[in-house]
Model the fold of this input.
Amino acid sequence: ATLKNIETLGEQSAAGLPEISGIVLLEVPTVSALAKSGLKVGDVILQCQDMKIATFKQLLQVTKDFQYLGELKLVVHRNQNKVQLIIKEH
Done:
């Protein structure tokens, strides 16, 4: 997948976010574990394992810390709503 930090007021506004924070998905290959778990282009990752995620670096650290679980709980911003997803290793 291709991910990018939300870094500007324009990106915040385009995503409909209340603050400049999170990671937007620019590309999600249809055969990836992310797509199979329900993530879509345009989703903005806000939380992982109940921790606020503001940057890609934070997401990498949380995924590393919890990789032993075999799945991750995400909260994403999609179409002005928060959606909870479980990302499983496939």
In short: The mean pLDDT is 95. The longest strand covers residues 71-78.
